[in-house]
Design goal:
The complex is a heterodimer. In chain A, helix 4 crosses helix 5. In chain A, about 35% of the residues lie in helices and about 25% in strands. By secondary structure, chain A is α/β, with parallel strands linked by helices. Chain B has one domain: ABC transporter involved in vitamin B12 uptake, BtuC. The chains are: A alpha/beta, B mainly alpha.
């Protein structure tokens, strides 16, 4: 089966296909990497970049396709197999073992040993020596026995890079490596990446930051909706051309018609600044009754942090929240619920469903009090009827109310969570990525629900990383970049490229290019 | 994650909220029932096995004795169980039992008894010492809850500390002059009647203590299944973050859970003193482990969010039958320990294996 592969490439991914229920994550994707090249991989959130790389790194099992390394077909059943084959990947989210030393983190799973009296012991001295050499190679000077928890985020990143190097990797994949680094640290990282390239490694660089991509990469591959759009030498494309290729889609009949008419001001957020350094700053916006307000931005724009702060889950340093003209103080989700705000969180598993309970109990959770007498005894009949009615209205496909929620599909679980908040009857409904991981049909149903709620005069805030969704489902869009609002646009008159420019803060970049003094 | 999507298979779109779940052929249904109720089968198997060895085992007297011995265990297990459901654990249970036993007994001795704990104490109405003893346990339970919910000390540590503290308090109380750590005896008849009296006569009579345990179980069943509090506890145990986002006051509920658990330990301690006609400061030692064992055997998840009153009851009865029945047929008590240990581990391993397969 091994077709002759050109020695021009160190790694070839051919016809990689991966389907999740209801979603084609990768549709026969090809990617070829040359040695001694930095290869940028770009696309909107959900385009399939990370899934593709997870296939090479043994974290995801592709349904079809070939992976060819140095002209040989390989299978990658696990990250360990990938590492042994010379493929390293630094994940977007780093998970070092905090209470162990840097060297133990680096050599975890393959500690050097020596034999004493016939028994095997960890060779700490050799491990320390090797670690020092590796750390010097990535330009950080810390003792090998420093605990990982004492490192800064960038040091952890460099430690992971050192770990990647220790496998003598031919292919190094970096997934959003700079999302939490300062400019100076980015410069250090880039110097190391360039040196790795010059030593012959192929580096895959996944990023949303256009300026970095143009600075560091030699080639660029663009993905969209699980398809590979193409590969170009980076210098041949302008930022605008990259963005157009990333988003180049047409609005189709994937959204129900918007019928809502925004009315009086419902919520005002004034100069809201997070108490957490590096999070959002001086965010102001208004939400009207009957309006769907989209919040757009890329990873790291602090959108989730913003809405969770409004909902009382995170501390706020300054600023004001005004509902119906009255300033309100919200310090906990309970306060938020009393102010009739509801939040559908981004992570359904982490903070949405109660996996051990039934559909009914999950639906009724936020409004139990309304169906209980003074002793706190819940009237089973009315509670069940209310749950059934909302489940019915949202067309949740479930065999019964007593079915465990975990046996429903993702889209139906999400609809149960919608039901939970509908039963609580909020005035302001905040939706954080409400259609993530949901198939297209269920998405349409969720947009329809959103429209119905808006028609009832509720105010809806919807965070979305999908530009089409922002354009198709909202009335106005607030765009954020690195914790600041970079623009507010009317969804009817704007386009995807405009949003992407605001989300990457291209104006600031161009201004900086032109040599004007613009703060980063 | 690898190779398998994390989202469960979508269900067939067979309409909305309709008839109960359609299941496969009846073989599947039987297998499912057996899986979910395996512990009941273990209980039946134990009883049948013991009865085969000695048919004299099946008698009303023995049933009555098993229930009598299991009553306080059940009350404690219900408290320990609701704590486990809330994603906690309570190691202070046994020492609270001991405290309530000593405190109540110390105030309920007959006046002419030779060695009185409080020689000058006027006779108190029966309920007063009981209320004092149980309230103390509610108080310490609430402190457990506050330390866990407000100071964010892990439940294991918080209640471990409380277990040691309460033993110290109880030992100091018990060591007061003139008692000087002597076992407390000579309890009033109206008090001991709680533990030894019964409704009716002969083997058909129902001991008060069994009735109290049954009522406690009923109250817990209502609490867990019919009240906002119970549903909140299941939600907090199942996913605390989701519960918080839903506007549930986690701290308030957790404090209530531990205070309620304290009440069960207090009640059990009082009944232990009444049943045995005495008390000393080592009463209740390690009962928390028996209670946790009964809970997990009865299907309560130590990871929180799962557990039923029926399961806890059966779990307690399994250990009741082992203790009583194996002694009845003359099995060495040390062997009983080994059998109990195997059942604890086996029950949980079986449960986990079953859930793995479903996933």
């Amino acid at each position: 089966m091994t077709a002759p592969a050109s020695s021009e490439f160190v790694l070839e991914m051919l016809g990689i296909r991966k389907e999740f229920p209801g979603v084609v994550a990768l549709a026969d994707v090809d990617l070829r990497l040359r040695p001694g090249t930095i290869h940028a991989l770009v696309g909107e959130n959900g385009a399939g970049k990370s899934t593709l790389m997870n296939c090479v790194f043994g974290l995801v099992d592709p349904d079809a396709g070939r992976i060819v390394l140095d002209g040989q077909d390989i299978v990658v059943p696990s990250p360990r197999a990938a590492l042994d084959a010379g493929i390293s990947m630094i994940q977007q989210e780093l998970h070092p073992i905090p209470a162990r030393s840097v060297m133990e983190n680096i050599w975890l799973g393959r500690f050097p040993t020596r034999r004493v009296a016939g028994l095997s012991f960890v060779d700490h001295r050799r491990m320390a020596t090797d670690t020092r050499r590796l750390l010097a190679g990535v330009g950080i000077d810390i003792p090998p026995d420093t605990l990982a928890e004492d490192l800064s985020v960038s040091q952890v990143q460099l430690m992971e890079l050192a770990r990647a190097l220790s496998f003598r990797a031919k292919v190094i994949i970096l997934d959003e490596p700079t999302s939490s680094l300062s400019e100076h640290e980015v410069a250090t990282l880039f110097a190391i990446i360039r040196r790795l390239r010059d030593e012959g490694a192929a580096v895959v660089y996944i990023s949303h930051k256009m300026e970095e991509i143009r600075e560091i990469s030699d080639e660029i591959s663009i993905m969209r909706d699980g398809h590979m759009i193409g590969t170009w030498p980076t210098r041949e494309l302008s930022i605008d051309q990259i963005i157009t290729r990333m988003v180049g889609r047409e609005l189709t009949a994937r959204f129900p018609e918007k019928t809502h008419r925004p009315g009086a001001t419902l919520l005002e957020v004034r100069d809201l600044t997070s108490a957490i350094p590096g999070s959002f700053q001086a965010v102001s916006f208004e939400l009207h009754r009957g309006e769907v307000l989209g919040i757009g931005g890329l990873v790291g724009a602090q959108r989730t942090e913003l809405v969770e702060s409004i909902f009382g889950m995170r501390p706020v340093a300054s600023g004001e929240i005004v509902i119906d003209g009255q300033p309100v103080v919200i310090r906990s989700p309970l306060d938020a619920k009393r102010a009739r705000i509801a939040l559908l969180t981004e992570d359904r598993r982490l903070s949405g469903i109660i996996p051990t309970r039934s559909v009914e109990e999950n639906a009724i959770l936020a409004s139990l009090r309304a169906y209980a007498n003074r002793l706190g005894i819940v009237h089973a009949g009315p509670a069940r009827r209310a749950a059934a009615e909302s489940i019915d209205r949202l067309q949740v496909r479930t065999p019964s109310l007593r079915t465990p929620i975990t046996s429903l599909s993702g889209g139906n679980q999400q609809k149960v969570l919608f039901a939970r908040w509908l039963l609580a009857d909020p005035e302001i409904l905040i939706l954080d990525e409400p259609t993530r991981g949901i198939d297209v049909g269920a998405k349409f149903e969720i947009y329809t629900i959103i429209n119905e709620l808006a028609a009832l005069g509720k105010g809806i805030i919807m965070i979305s990383s999908e530009m089409l969704e922002l354009l198709g489902a909202s009335d106005r869009i607030v765009v954020m970049c690195r914790g600041r609002v970079t623009g507010q646009v009317d969804a009817r008159t704007t386009d995807q490229a405009t949003i992407m420019r605001l989300a990457t803060d291209v104006e600031a970049l161009i201004a900086a290019d032109e040599g004007q003094a613009v703060g980063a | 994650m690898k190779g398998r999507p994390s989202v469960p298979e979508p269900l067939p779109a067979d309409g909305v909220v309709s008839a109960p779940a359609r299941r496969g052929p009846s073989g599947d249904r039987i297998r499912e029932w057996v899986g979910a109720n395996a512990i009941i089968l273990v209980l039946v198997a134990l009883i049948v096995g013991i009865a085969i060895i000695d048919s004299g085992f099946v008698s009303l007297t023995n049933l009555r004795n098993i229930l009598l011995n299991s009553s306080t265990r059940l009350i404690i297990a219900l408290g320990a169980g609701i704590v486990l459901i809330s994603r906690g654990v309570d190691l202070s249970a046994g020492r609270m039992v001991g405290l309530a036993a000593v405190v109540s007994a110390s105030m309920l001795q007959v006046e002419d008894y030779g060695r009185l704990f409080f020689p000058d104490l006027v006779p108190l109405p029966l309920f007063a010492p009981l209320v004092i003893a149980i309230s103390l346990c509610v108080f310490f339970g609430a402190i457990n809850g506050i330390v866990i919910a407000k100071l964010h000390v892990p439940p294991f540590i918080a209640t471990l500390g409380m277990m040691v503290i309460i033993y110290g308090i109880n030992a100091i109380y018990f060591d007061q002059t003139p008692n000087n750590s002597q076992p407390i005896g000579g309890l009033r008849d109206d008090f001991t009647a709680l533990g030894t009296g019964a409704v009716g006569e002969g083997p058909l009579s129902i001991p008060y203590i069994v009735i109290i345990a049954a009522l406690t179980a009923v109250v817990f069943w209502i609490l867990l299944n019919k009240t906002v509090f119970g549903k909140n506890v299941y939600a907090i145990g199942g996913n605390p973050q989701a519960a918080a986002v839903s506007g549930i006051d986690i701290a308030k509920n957790i404090i209530a859970v531990y205070a309620l658990a304290g009440a069960t330990y207090g009640l059990a301690g009082v009944l232990e003193a009444a049943r045995t006609g005495g008390a000393n400061s080592s009463y209740g030692s390690l009962y928390e482990l028996d209670a946790i064992a009964a809970c997990v055997v009865g299907g309560v998840s130590t990871a929180g969010g799962i557990g039923r009153v029926g399961g806890i009851t059966v779990g307690v009865l399994v250990f009741g039958v082992i203790n009583y029945g194996l002694t009845f047929i003359g099995i060495n008590p040390f062997w009983q320990q080994i059998i109990k240990g195997v059942i604890i581990i086996g029950a949980v391993a079986f449960d986990i294996a079953r859930n793995w397969r479903q996933r």
